[in-house]
Write a structure and sequence with these properties.
The complex is a heterodimer of chains A (about 475) and B (about 250).
Chain A (H helix, E strand, L loop, with lengths): L5 H14 L10 E2 L4 E4 L5 E4 L6 E2 L1 H11 L4 E6 L5 H13 L3 H7 L1 E2 L6 H4 L1 E3 L1 H7 L4 E3 L1 H4 L3 E4 L6 H13 L1 E4 L2 E4 L5 E6 L10 H5 L3 E5 L7 H6 L3 H4 L16 H10 L1 E2 L1 E2 L2 E2 H14 L43 H17 L4 E2 L1 H12 L7 H6 L7 H21 L1 H16 L1 E2 L2 E2 L2 H16 L6 H19 L1
Parallel strand pairs in A: 5-12, 5-13, 6-9, 9-12, 14-17
Antiparallel strand pairs in A: 1-4, 2-3, 7-8, 10-11, 15-16, 18-19
Chain B lengths: L14 H10 L24 E4 L2 E3 L2 E3 L2 E4 L9 H10 L3 E2 L2 H13 L12 H12 L6 E12 L2 E9 L5 E7 L8 E5 L1 H7 L15 E4 L6 E7 L2 E8 L8 E2 L2 E4 L2
Parallel strand pairs in B: 6-13, 10-12
Antiparallel strand pairs in B: 1-4, 2-3, 4-14, 5-14, 6-7, 6-11, 7-8, 9-10, 11-12
Classes of the chains: A alpha/beta (about 475), B alpha+beta (about 250).
């Protein structure tokens, strides 16, 4: 095995972790192409991957992608003892090259007595006592490229707020000193709620780019896990943790390649970003928030929410299924992970399939279902990934509906073209003519009873208003 | 300042023609005295329309309308039909207006858009076209879309405001028959006792009209062929058929 591309090395490492029994879970739930679904008589469907596609288990896949990104943040949830923490530790080790001992030494264990001093930094007591000097010594956690916080929801809220800042900015403050954390992935594990856990707030959850639900291994996976040997009997995993020299990764190069990956474009517009923005726009809207379009967002629906508002005009639109909207942070993460996923699969362009594959894992921990959603499917309380898959399907349908309405889209594009050039063909338009044409375009688009017309019509007005401001 | 750019991919072919139409068919300014776009359309052949006098049913009312004798916009899905009608300055009649329209025809006091009373033969032909159990299949979309919101089933349809503009509204479904009857419900009883939303009451007597009650995500449709006459309130809006059209109604000025 020589001269492997960086993608091939990552794929080889992904396989190696499974082959060595370090993280075995054949519950493939992420596919590069929508799989065939074979129905079982008992009501379930079993996915069979299509020819030429790839299938991954989400915990290891996203641990891999998160490790490859500069400041990736990943939340790992699941029942105790299913491999949440070890999976993260092994992925961190293999995909960043950081020795496992270093990762373990820096790891923070969540518990109610956890303090800032134990996690972030401490004063040099010798110097403090002998000379009164306040010299701050950062904890290993800050200096390790792979950061793992185990069972974070056992930490009290004030400790979580320190972690929140660290996750968000890569910085922590101790005493008067701002400390920078070494760049690299942050993995946070959390068991499902019990009497000893604290609640993660929505702002805290929003900090995580991606989240996975780890399931217990399939019964047929246990023999492979046993085959790696029992470290409680044989004392260690040293050999199994060796990274073959030909699989050592060149991170700088990988991050450059991922960053440089271009999107597939249609008529000069990046098609993947367009879809990602449509997802964002579809969930952002809230009729409950205000009668003004400028303030009709979920973020402003803080008293009358999507849950306690009377039915609005759009009773079945995707936005009616979530209480909250997506943050700009999430909108950016969508493209980042879509790119990393496309890169890992050896593509030279990011396509719609890439973002659709990763989307549920970027959103499920952030979106809160409405009562309407829970009434439609009570299992959404457990399976938030299915909840997001359901919304994503609705959004895809709306997107397809919009893309098939060429009359509306061309009216929209024609209006923007008039604004851009001030002309129709070779004829230069007067300002009143431009305004009349745009008003007509807005009225035509607005006559269509669909939520997706609102951003299109609003953009025309917004572009006109901005242009008018700067023409003065 | 960045240049205006579409946020979604759009095929640029034919944009100039669309742009010209924006200029040529521009809508009036939206100020207090101007009628909103799309509310009223002109009628080229008033003789082919029937005047449906304005009515009030509880809180629902509408002004005098011109309802065409023929169905148009055939082969379109429900949403497509609604959009096309709007762009034509017309709209789909609601189940309540449909009931009033049939009652008007059955009363024998129907007038066309020129103010000429329809003769008995013409009225019979119109009623047969709507109600007779015969082939070919004839059907029409009605403006009622049903959607579940929590525990409430809502119906969405248009209302005509006092200034003539159209407003789509959503309101909880009124008390109506919530079970399928195949067959059927009594046509006479339905036409006499339809609720304010045009749907049959719970206690309706049996008859020959096939009835499917309103369900989430469905729309309303009325149709007939040799197999029967049906009022369906759970039709898939994405369905289309070359025999399925709409009555492109306009406000009578």
């Amino acid at each position: 095995m020589t001269n492997l591309s960086e993608q091939q090395k990552v794929q080889a490492l992904y396989k190696l972790i499974g082959d060595r029994g370090l993280y075995v879970n054949t519950n493939a739930d992420v596919f590069t192409k929508k799989p065939e679904e074979v129905p079982l008589g008992v009501g379930y469907k079993i996915p069979l991957m299509q020819d030429g596609s790839q299938a991954y288990a989400s915990p290891l896949l996203f641990a891999t992608l998160t490790s490859l990104l500069n400041h990736g943040t990943m939340l790992i949830t699941g029942a105790p003892g299913v491999g949440k923490t070890t999976g993260a530790e092994f992925a961190g080790h293999f995909f960043t090259g950081t020795p496992l001992e270093e990762i373990l030494a820096a790891e923070i264990q969540g518990h109610p007595q956890q303090t800032e001093e134990k996690m972030v930094a401490r004063y040099d007591l010798g110097k403090l006592i002998s000379s009164g000097q306040e010299v701050v010594i950062p904890r290993k956690f800050l200096e390790c490229p792979v950061k793992v916080i185990d069972e974070a929801n056992r930490c009290p809220p004030d400790v979580l707020s320190v972690i929140m800042r660290l996750v968000d900015t890569g910085k922590a403050v101790y005493g008067n000193q701002v400390l920078s954390a070494k760049s690299g992935p942050l993995f946070v594990t959390a068991n499902y709620a019990d009497e000893g856990t604290f609640h993660f707030t929505p702002p805290f959850l929003d900090r995580f780019d991606v989240a996975v639900m780890v399931t217990s291994p399939q019964p047929w996976d246990l023999s492979r896990i046993r085959a790696r040997g029992d470290e409680k009997l044989n004392g260690g995993l040293t050999e199994l943790l060796t990274i073959p020299p030909e699989m050592k990764l060149d991170f700088e190069n990988i991050r450059k390649q991922i960053n440089g990956l271009e999107e597939k474009t249609e008529y000069g517009i990046p098609a993947v970003s367009a879809f990602a923005d449509f997802v964002y726009g579809s969930l952002r809207f809230s009729e409950a928030a205000s009668d003004s379009l400028a303030r009709s967002t979920k973020g402003n629906a803080w008293q009358v929410t999507q849950d306690n508002a009377p039915p609005g005009h759009f009773v079945d639109a995707p936005f009616t299924y979530t209480v909250n909207e997506l943050s700009v942070r999430t909108a950016r993460a969508m493209m980042r992970y879509a790119k990393a996923f496309a890169w890992m699969n050896g593509k030279d362009k990011v396509e719609l399939d890439d973002i659709k594959a990763v989307l549920p894992y970027l959103l499920w921990h952030k979106l809160q279902p409405t009562q309407k959603a829970m009434t439609e499917n009570p299992k959404y309380a457990n399976d938030r990934i299915a909840f997001v898959e359901g919304i994503a399907q609705r959004i895809e349908n709306d997107y397809a509906d919009m893309m098939s309405n060429q009359s509306a889209l061309k009216t929209y594009a024609a209006a923007l073209e008039i604004l851009r050039t001030g002309k129709i063909g070779n004829k230069t338009l007067t300002e009143p003519e431009i305004k009349n044409a745009l008003r007509t375009a807005i009225a035509r688009i607005g006559s269509i009873d669909k939520q997706w017309t609102i951003p299109l019509a609003s953009q025309i007005a917004s572009e006109y208003n901005t242009r008018a401001m700067y023409k003065k | 300042m960045t240049e205006p750019k579409p946020i979604v991919p759009v095929n640029p072919e034919g944009l100039d023609d669309i742009a010209k139409s924006l200029l040529e068919n521009s809508v009036p300014e939206f100020n207090a005295s101007a009628p909103p776009a799309g509310a009223v359309g002109s009628v080229e052949e008033p003789g082919s329309y029937i005047i449906l006098p304005g009515r009030k049913h509880g809180s629902y009312e509408y002004p005098d309308l011109l309802v065409p004798a023929e169905r148009t916009h055939k082969g379109k899905k429900w949403h497509q039909a609604k959009e096309s009608l709007y762009l034509d300055g017309a709209y789909m009649i609601t189940p309540r207006q449909f009931v009033d329209f049939i009652n008007l025809l059955r009363s024998g006091n129907a007038y066309n858009g020129l103010g000429v009373k329809l003769d008995t033969k013409r009225v019979k032909a119109l009623l047969d076209d709507i109600l007779e159990q015969k082939d070919p299949y004839r059907a029409e979309w009605l403006d009622a879309r049903f959607a579940q919101s929590g525990k409430t089933l809502n119906v969405m349809y248009h209302k005509i405001k006092s200034d003539g503009s159209i407003e789509d509204v959503a309101e909880p479904l009124h008390d109506c028959l919530m079970e399928d009857k195949q067959p059927g419900i009594s046509l006479d009883y339905w036409l006499r006792n339809a609720n304010n939303q045009g749907l049959p009451p719970k206690n309706i007597s049996d008859g020959s009209i096939y009835y499917w009650y309103p369900r989430d995500k469905a729309v309303a449709r009325f149709g007939a062929n040799s197999g029967g006459v049906d009022l369906i309130a759970f039709r898939d809006p994405a369905y289309s058929d070359s025999s399925l059209g709409v009555r492109a109604a306009k406000i009578k000025r």
